[in-house]
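Input.
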Amino acid sequence: MQVAELQQNLVQHQHKENKIMCKKIQLSVSDTELHNNHHHNSCGCDVDGCHKVEGEDLFIPPLNFAMVDNGIFRSGFPEPANFSFLQTLALRSIIYLCPEPYPEANMEFLKSNGIKLYQFGIEGHKEPFVNIPEDTIREALKVVLDVRNHPLIIHCKRGKHRTGCLVGCYRKLQKWCLSSVFDEYQRFAAAKARVSDQRFVELFDISTIKHLPITFSSFKRLD
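Output.
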């Protein structure tokens, strides 16, 4: 099987795993309750069982949430409504890619759940010729690669550009071909995809960090 086919299979597998995970974290409800309560599926998942039942709380993932690898997730900025969902991930760390201070409510959530915040302030630019700080992405990757920080979630504001660049560089370390890396980036960025982001990922030099071990943790958090 060709490398590109293997990478495509991995993407499909991860999409399937996201659906399974979404199903597992939902509160147990009976088939009758599901039939009688056709509420909007807030998580965007088409898995049977991801429906809100009257009187029950629903775990709502952040915008653009997805699994990157075992113990590594990505999303847009978590809102308080997402905190219950994040608790199901048993996070050890959060990688925050924006320069703005973390909101007080989010900091309280981190403290109460023993989650460490790693902030790498990257300005959000729409201009095509603004350079993305390569050194900052490199330092963030070192945090991602350290399994002692897993499970972790990577996020910026919308989970599209800055998060997409970091994940794209991570895929290069996994030896993904560029077409597969860009397919994944575009799936999250959609109409907001930027050529400058993809160019950055293409030119990113992994030689200074490729010696680091690339091992993957399980979902279970080890205290």
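Confidence is low (pLDDT under 50) at residues 22-49, 216-223.
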